[in-house]
Amino acid sequence: MTGCCIQDEQDLCMEYSPKIYQLITRKYTLAILLLLDKYDKMRFNEIMRKINGITQRILSMRLKELEKAYLIRREIDKNGKTVMYSITTQGKALKNAMLMLLQLTNLLSPPNNPEKDYFC
What we know:
The protein is mainly α. It has helices at 18-24, 29-39, 44-50, 56-68, 89-108; strands spanning 41-42, 72-76, 83-87. The protein has one domain: Winged helix-like DNA-binding domain superfamily/Winged helix DNA-binding domain (Arc Repressor Mutant, subunit A). 48% of the residues lie in helices and 10% in strands. A three-stranded antiparallel beta sheet has the order 1-3-2. Helix 2 (29-39) packs across helix 5 (89-108).
């Protein structure tokens, strides 16, 4: 017995990493990836200032999760005083895929509420 729910059609089944799937659906993940893609490198406090409502604890957790998944890179300068975060190639690919999915949801069901929903 396999983990696929489609019987007699194993070629339609695809394995995926539940950890990555859970990470990309967490609040602020896309916002962090978007910022790092736009600004190339950012410090922790710069990211904090750009994201409304995020706490230091959540930002710290999310950055560690994204780094562990190889979606962002954490770099320390030669003096050991400045930590910079940047997006990896994998992170850019994931960000682009997430944006395409958001655009598709808008095509299928355009937001008609004057108070729009946002991804974070």
